[in-house]
Amino acid sequence: MKGTSLIVSIVLLVAVAVLYVLHFTDSDSEEHESSEPTTNNVGTSSLRIAYVKADSVILNYNLSQDLHDDFTKKQEAYTSEYGIKRQNFEKEAAAFQEKVQRGGFLTEQRAIQERDRLVGKEQEIVTLDQELSTKLNELQGANNQQILDSLMSYLEDFNAGDKYDYIFNAANILIGDEADNITAEVLKALNEKYSGKLE
User: Fold this and answer.
1) Nearest to 182 by CA among 84, 66, 50
2) What range defines the domain where residue 141 resides?
3) Spatial separation of the C-alpha atoms in residues 154 and 57, rounded to whole Å
4) CA 196 – CA 190 distance, rounded (Å)
5) For range 181-185, the mean pLDDT
6) At what angle do helices 183-198 and 62-101 cross, to 10 degrees?
7) In 61-107, which ranges are continuous DSSP H helix?
C-alpha cells in the first residue's frame, strides 16, 4: 500500500506542478499583452484550494478493496502452483539421490540422463517463479493505475466548473485548514459511483 500511496503522491505532485506552471505562464502572457500598468491584486483575489488524503481514499475506496482481494486470491493461487511444483521436484530429486547412492541405475549414462532431466525441471520451476512474480507485479501496477485513473477522473469531473484552483494530495501538505479537506466528499462519491457500476 505504501507503493500505491507513493505513486499517487508523485502523480498528483506532477499534476499540481503542471497546473502551477500553466497558471502562471498564462498570467505572465496576459501581463505582457496589457499596455496598462498593473496593480498588485494580492488582497483582492484568493486562491481556491482543496486537498484530498489520497492514502485514505485508497484504503477506503471499494474498488481498491475489491482489486486488493482479487490480487490476494491470484497471489495465493500462484504461490500454491509454485509450491506444488517445487515440492514435487524436491521429492524427485531426493528419490534420484537415494537411487544414485544405492546404485539403482543400470548405467552411468542413465543416471546422467535423469540428472539432466531434473536440472531442466529445476530451471522450469525457477522460470515459473520469475513469471509468476512478473505477473503479480504487472497486476499490482495495473490495479494502482486503475485506482489512480478513477480518482483523477472523478476529480476532473468534480472540478469541471473550476470550483477550485488547486486540489492537492494531503501527503504533501504540512498545515492545512480542515475546511479545505474534501476527502470524505470524494470518497463518498467514488464509492457511490463504483457501487452504481456493480449493480
Assistant:
1) 50
2) 2-198
3) 12
4) 10
5) 92
6) 70
7) 62-101
For residue 121, give the nearest of 100, 157, 96 by alpha carbon: 96
Quick one: CA dihedral 172, 164, 189, 184, positive or negative? positive
Question: Are 134 and 15 a contacting pair, CB within 8 Å?
Answer: no
* DSSP bridge pairs for 181: 51
CB of 121 within 8 A of CB of 89? Answer: yes
Residue given cell 484530498 in the structure block:
52
Distant-in-sequence, close-in-space partners of 7: CB < 8 Å, separation ≥ 6:
144, 148
pLDDT per residue as tens digits for the range 106-147? 788 988 898 999 999 999 999 999 999 999 999 999 999 999
* Cβ neighbours, 10 Å, residue 54: 26
For residue 121, CA distances in Å to 38, 80, 98, 128 come to: 77, 17, 18, 10
Residue 24 vs residue 191, higher pLDDT: 191
On whether the CB atoms of residues 61 and 191 are closer than 8 A, the answer is yes
Nearest in space to 148 (alpha carbons), one of 66, 65, 72, 54: 54
Provide the domain count of the chain. 1
